[in-house]
Amino acid sequence: MISKFKLYITSVALALCCVSCLDKFPEDSIPFDKAIQTVKDVDLAVIGIYDAFKSSALYSGNLTLLPDLQTDFVYGVNGNTNVYGDIWRWKNILATNTDIEAVYGSLYMVINRCNFLLDRVDNVRKNVTNDEQLDKLDQCCGEAYFARALAYSELVKLFCKAYESDEDAAQQLGVILTCHYGGNEKMKRASLKDSYDFILEDLDRAEELLKIEEDYPGNLYDDNHSPYFNEYTVHALRARVSLYMKNWDDAIKYSTKVIESNRYRLSSCTNAITNGVSHYKYMWTNDFSTETIWQVGFTVTSYGGALGRIFANYDYVSLRPDYVPAEWVINLYDNNDLRVTTFFQNQTTSYGLTWPLLIKYFGNESFIENRILHVCMPKVFRLSEQYLIRAEAYVQKEQPEYGKAGTDISTLRLARYSTYGSGTTPMNKDNAMDIIEQERVKELYMEGFRLHDLKRWHKGFERKPQAQSLENGSSLKVEKDDVMFVWPIPQHELDAPGSIVEPNESNK
């Protein structure tokens, strides 16, 4: 029964280019009221939700890569394959762009799976009396609420304007909100405020259902880099969403819950875990660390996209990157910042170009041993982001706390630098945001944050040609608040029967 359900979900994903992402099962599929009947069925449905996050349109591909490719982080090189070319050139980013359609459709696929489970679980619960099984149902619901909140948080980040205030957000377009699989909810966009409120309500539910009661006694390496949601993934997303909503107090509150939980520790760039490989580098080469709060779980027989392919295209003989790092990014790192050697490595390509290529995503070593290149597990939440969130919130609040922000930046740098002078980061009104913005670039490079960061900071960017970069796209100046900071709503969603979905400015 559930396997047929999962097969149907897969077939829907292939058809997203021609129907609304909110369309449901066809008439000849498993009837809705027969699809999930037991606790085991519910558990399998949750596995299906986790599987949906493996999509190469999401964290192991488009959702991570496109927002950074679109900005000033990389340059297309002469001879590249033109993959993601329209996005990188900031031209022809149309409502029919298949890469954007895939992100939109895959996020709503996650939401539809969550709604399907949540609509059916009460029917299962009424026939269960065993406390352990009831707890299992609560856990599954918590995971579904969190997954739905996560998917909606990505939709509002990409397809909506930045959140300025409650009053402004109430007037801005959000996303289509749907909380039932079998309902007849209107295909109409809610306000941006209502969209964020929906996310927060789901996070409230998830926090209660995924709460960890006991104090943490465990081994960091046993319990981290988990492929499953828990109370602290909820807090991590709540901190991120609060930052985006400019709710500085909540951003501090929830990031602190993660930081002070003692469940996670920043991975050191100086201490070796094995054979001279630092804990920090091992996080990228082996998907194993003390600071990963949640990563998408891959195995050599079940994995998603290849994040590192466009930066190497290695075929066991030569390297043919489509994109190389921007010089200004590499120059941003201090001489004793060990992230630079973890992320970049000088290589001579088959184009004759010698360049510091991005090796951050070259691939998990166990996958490489199985001749699977450029595949690694996307780290959606890491402890370092929580320090950056809290530092930014400290300096943005009505009464800034520059000393506390400086302590958070220092803590992060002490884990990343070979030596860090006095170990303190003096921050004040004039330099605080510059330091934080640069640290987000250095720590979160090519993890999908740059486009939204520039949007919410109301900053533009400029590209200037660098060695062997493509002529078309290398010279580009984008002003702040350009309409293309907000992606167009896919055309198939606007044209779907019964749709009253309003377009974005970028659709016009």
Automatic annotation (TrEMBL):
UniProt keyword annotation of Membrane present: yes
Gene Ontology CC annotations of this record: cell outer membrane
Domain named SusD-like N-terminal: residues: 78-211
Domain RagB/SusD: 380-501
Keywords: Cell outer membrane, Membrane, Signal
Localization per Swiss-Prot or TrEMBL: Cell outer membrane
UniProt record similarity statement: Belongs to the SusD family.
Protein's UniProt name: RagB/SusD family nutrient uptake outer membrane protein
Naturally occurring in which organism (per UniProt): Bacteroides caecimuris
